[in-house]
Write a structure and sequence with these properties.
It contains 6 helices and 7 strands; from the N terminus they run αβββββαββαααα. It is of the alpha+beta class. A hairpin with a 4-residue loop joins strand 1 and strand 2.
Length: about 170
C-alpha cells in the first residue's frame, strides 16, 4: 500500500512538472517559475529545485556528487535531457567560455555593448525613454523607480556614460 501511494505521488509530481514544459524541436523550454529568470524552478513540498536537474535525474539517474548539470545549448531554461550532461566546475566554466555568450570577451558582458550584453537591464528604446523622461523634467529618483534601477545607473544613462547614444 505504501508503494502504491508513493507511485501515485510520483505520477502527480511528474504530471505537474511536464505541464510546465513547452516541447520544441530543440530546447524543451521551462514555462514555470524561475530562479532569477536564468534556471527553471520546480517545487516539491518545501524544496525549490532546478528544473533541468530534475529532468536529468528522471532520464539518467542520480547526479554524481559535486557535479553540475550543464547545458549543451546554453539555455538555462531548457529541460531537454539530450541537451544536459553532468560535469565538474572546470568543465562547466570551460564550456561556458567557449560558447557564444562569451565569444566576445573573457567574462560575461565584458566588451559587449547595449542589448548584446547579457547583463543589460534595458533595451536601446528603454535607454532612449530614460533620456527623454529626464529631458521632460523627471528626477533620477522617479525614473529609477519606474525602471527598477539605481539612481546612479539612471544618471550614467542620461550623461552618456552607459548606453551611449549612437552618432
Amino acid at each position: 500500500m505504501a508503494q502504491e501511494k508513493r507511485s501515485y505521488a510520483d505520477r502527480e509530481i511528474a504530471l505537474r512538472f511536464w505541464r510546465n514544459v513547452d516541447f520544441g524541436e530543440g530546447c524543451w523550454q521551462w514555462k514555470g517559475g524561475t530562479f532569477g529568470g536564468r534556471y527553471g524552478q520546480f517545487r516539491i513540498g518545501d524544496l525549490k529545485l532546478r528544473a533541468h536537474r530534475i529532468s536529468y535525474v528522471w532520464f539518467f539517474g542520480s547526479i554524481p556528487v559535486g557535479a553540475f548539470v550543464c547545458h549543451h545549448c546554453d539555455n538555462g531554461l531548457c529541460v531537454n535531457p539530450l541537451h544536459l550532461y553532468a560535469g565538474d566546475g572546470k568543465t562547466n566554466a570551460r564550456d561556458r567560455e567557449e560558447r557564444t555568450i562569451f565569444r566576445h570577451g573573457p567574462a560575461p558582458g565584458k566588451g559587449l555593448l547595449g542589448e548584446r550584453n547579457p547583463a543589460a537591464k534595458l533595451t536601446e528604446s528603454g535607454a532612449y525613454c530614460v533620456r527623454r523622461l529626464h529631458k521632460e523634467g523627471w528626477s533620477y529618483r522617479r525614473i529609477s523607480v519606474a525602471f527598477a534601477m539605481s539612481k546612479s545607473q539612471i544618471a550614467n544613462i542620461v550623461k552618456g556614460r552607459s548606453w551611449a547614444q549612437q552618432r
